[in-house]
Amino acid sequence: MTIYKVNSIGVICNNEEGVFIKLEPQFIPALKALEGFSHINVFWWFSDFDSEQFRSTLVTDQPYKNAPEQMGIFATRSPIRPNPIALTVVEVIKIDYQNGIIQIGYIDANDNTPLLDIKPYTPSLDRVEVPVVPEWCNHWPKSLEQSASFAWENEFNF
């Protein structure tokens, strides 16, 4: 097995002060020209789920109420995976270029979660006009905006 080196470039803060990304000082210049993008793709590390046990779990019992009784990890958005990498599209509220802070609307990461990378969301590469999903989840919202008011708590078995 080949080993790859991945370095954190900052942290995700999700606390009483708000929801934001804080870059390590050496990565602040990488923010140049990010203004104008309404959304970014945030790659982060499920650090709370990084163990041999979680990394070796490949099948899980029904995580979603209407899903098949068992699902492969690659058919879920579970934090339990061979490489605990997460991807979340987030809305950019404000960028503080001086301090390397990006205020964002929401992210499903815990406070002080390691940040791996940021890429601008571009519809020509990231948007699929007519995505197809399995029947058991085709009632889920069709956009990030609609997800904000969706009763997600009624969808999960945990």
Can you put this structure into words, describing what you see?
The protein has 158 residues and is mainly beta. It has a single domain (10-121, 132-154), classed as Elongation Factor Tu (Ef-tu), domain 3. It is built from three helices and eight strands, in the order E-E-E-H-E-E-E-E-E-H-H. The protein has helices at 52-55, 123-126, 144-147; strands at residues 10-15, 18-23, 39-45, 59-61, 70-72, 85-96, 101-104, 113-120. The strands form two sheets. A six-stranded antiparallel beta barrel has the order 1-2-7-6-3-8. The longest helix is centred in the middle third of the chain and has 4 residues, at 52-55. It is globular.
Brief write-up:
The protein has helices spanning 52-55, 123-126, 144-147, and strands spanning 10-15, 18-23, 39-45, 59-61, 70-72, 85-96, 101-104, 113-120. The chain is mainly β and 158 residues long.
